[in-house]
Design a protein that fits this description.
Elements lengths: L1 H8 L21 H5 L1 H11 L2 E3 L5 E3 L2 H8 L4 E2 L17 H8 L8 H19 L14 H17 L9 H14 L9 H27 L5 H11 L5 H16 L2 H13 L1 H9 L4 H11 L6 E5 L3 E3 L2 E3 L4 E4 L1 H4 L34 H17 L5 E2 L20 E2 L2
Parallel strand pairs: 2-7
Antiparallel strand pairs: 1-2, 3-4, 4-7, 5-6, 8-9
The protein binds protoporphyrin IX containing FE (HEM).
Protoporphyrin IX containing FE (HEM) binds next to helix 11 and helix 16.
Keywords: Heme, Iron, Metal-binding, Monooxygenase, Oxidoreductase
Family: Belongs to the cytochrome P450 family.
Pfam family, one: p450
Length: about 400
């Protein structure tokens, strides 16, 4: 039996490139990797661009390979046969049902039309939104918890037609907790206890979104759930839970855009001369937002599954293997970005991959850019001269992501 497993997952003709011993210990799920990913990613890109890590997954780290992988139909978004969220668990686990209902876990052809409709409705709604009024007014002492999180929560509540009088501090806190739980779907689920709590949280979040959709169906208004409910009514093949689950996806993604803003503000406070540059040349803000998203992306990697054996360079990625696309490594690939480890707001625009690309590329990219630009304008014109309280940031242990735990600041 062992022989069979070896034959299936570790074919004899794999040829390994001579890689430094440190590569053997890279664990993309570890806290150490999240805390300090860039030197490990540089090693991978340089010595072992198609790398098999100890968990058995393959890591791709070059921009060109990842761009090709994002367009390769042999790499599926559907969960692996061994994943807790595999579709065969749908009837048993809420997490598996939610995952298989939502866009990032679907393949064409089911994915194509659902994505087109949801993206259209989302972008139409976004065009009508005005974000300026969502900026917090009090001087923050923590740029994640007192600035970025309230900005995103207020923005998403306004897009979702959750009226200010309903939007209590308790609901804000609950929504953010649900958003964080939702992102466990993109990670390995470590224990049965974790899975049980995830199921409970997703069940409540789903009920909240179903309730919102029903309420908006009965009393439509100019907001995203009303437009999604209308889309649902026009498309009888879509189930109630499918709509509620993608509503959850959009809400969770939007609420967690605070981490992108916090990473950007953190980078700027580490290099205050860059804040001065933006003060002197505010026309650089749109390019600065892109550059900050490239430089310290809140998404480190995304996952795919090989639907068949794939030969890539001198490695054979066997059918059913997990393939992790290291977006953060692509963003620092010197073949694409000159002085890739330097923050440069005047660099020539090149395609960074923090938002993925192609048929699964991020639907919220425009919203994130708008929120980040708004935050940068606020930082250079309205905020006091903040300094970081901590020299070493604390990162959450959220595999595949680089999310700060907090961002305390002081006014020196
Ligand atoms: C915080 C910054 C964000 C980053 C770095 C980011 C990154 C990404 C990436 C890399 C993907 C591709 C996943 C894949 O190919 O498997 C993706 C997909 C997606 N993103 Fe974002 N995202 C962000 C914020 C948002 C926001 C604010 C929204 C909407 C409110 C959003 C909605 C989506 C949706 C719906 C998908 C799935 C698209 C599909 O599978 O067709 N994202 N995002």
């Amino acid at each position: 039996m062992l022989k069979y497993i070896r034959a299936k997952f570790r074919p004899a003709n794999i040829s390994h490139t001579a890689a430094p011993p440190t590569l053997a210990v890279i664990d993309p799920y570890s806290q150490a990797f999240i805390d300090s990913p860039y030197s490990a990613l540089e090693q991978l890109r340089h010595h072992s661009p198609v790398h098999r890590c100890t968990s058995g997954s393959w890591l791709l780290s070059r921009h060109r390979d990842i761009s090709a992988a994002l367009a390769d139909p042999r790499l599926s978004n559907t969960p692996s046969d061994y994943a807790v969220v595999n579709q065969r668990h749908r009837d048993r686990y809420t997490c598996a049902d939610v995952a298989n209902n939502t866009l990032p876990f679907m393949d064409a052809p089911q994915h194509t039309e659902a994505r087109r409709n949801i993206a259209r409705v989302f972008h139409e709604q976004l065009r009508r939104a005005s974000l300026q009024s969502n900026l917090p007014t009090d001087t923050p002492s923590d740029l994640l918890h007192d600035f970025a999180t309230p900005l995103c929560t207020k923005t998403l509540c306004s897009l979702f037609g959750i009226a200010p009088r309903q939007q209590t501090a308790e609901l804000d806190r609950q929504l953010k907790l649900w958003a964080n739980w939702f992102f466990s779907l993109f990670s390995a689920i470590p224990s049965q206890q974790h899975r049980q709590q995830l199921d409970a949280e997703l069940h409540s979040f789903r009920q909240f979104c179903s309730g919102l959709l029903n309420q908006k169906r009965q009393h439509p208004s100019d907001d995203l759930p009303s437009a999604l409910a209308q889309l649902h009514d026009q498309t009888p093949s879509i189930s109630d839970t499918f709509m509620a689950d993608n509503c959850m996806l959009l809400l969770a993604d939007g609420l967690n855009a605070d981490y992108a803003i916090a990473n950007a503000l953190h980078c700027l406070l580490q290099q205050p001369e860059k804040i001065n540059q933006l003060r002197a040349k505010p026309e650089l803000i749109p390019a600065a937002a892109d550059e900050l998203l490239r430089f310290d992306s809140p998404v480190l990697f995304i996952a795919r599954r090989a639907l068949e054996d794939i030969q890539l360079h001198d490695q054979l990625i066997t059918e059913n293997s997990g393939v992790l696309l290291m977006l953060a490594a692509a963003n620092r690939d010197p073949d694409v970005f000159t002085d890739a480890n330097t923050l440069n707001f005047e660099r020539e625009a090149k395609p960074y991959l923090s938002f993925g690309r192609g048929q699964h590329g991020c639907i919220g990219r425009v919203l994130v850019k708008q929120l980040l630009e708004l935050s940068l304008r606020w930082l250079i014109s309205e905020a006091p001269n903040f300094a970081l309280v901590r020299t070493q940031p604390l990162w959450q242990h959220q595999a595949g992501h680089r999310w700060l735990q907090d961002l305390p600041v002081k006014i020196p």
